[in-house]
Write a structure and sequence with these properties.
One of its GO terms (biological process) is nucleobase-containing compound metabolic process. It comes from Buchnera aphidicola. With 84 residues, this protein is an alpha+beta fold. 42% of the residues lie in helices and 17% in strands. The longest helix is centred in the middle third of the chain and has 14 residues, at 36-49. The termini are far apart.
Length: 84
Amino acid sequence: MINKIPVITIDGPSGVGKSTLSKIIAKKLNWSLLESGKIYRLIAFLALNNNIAIVENNIVNLLKNLDCWLIKKKLLIIFIIYKT
């Protein structure tokens, strides 16, 4: 059986309130929220702190070496451990 999880995507330029709108919608619908921008910033942080040049092949290898756990609370929390 396939679980169908409803998804809403919101796109737009920086600083226009996408995250604010997403939080309001998630709260009203009692849904989890995944803020992809935070994931992108975390990956960049991990790459820079491990002296990994930000090029596609290096980022793919970095992602292959991540352990991720998703814990559903009020919002979606992501725990990531980089295996060095």
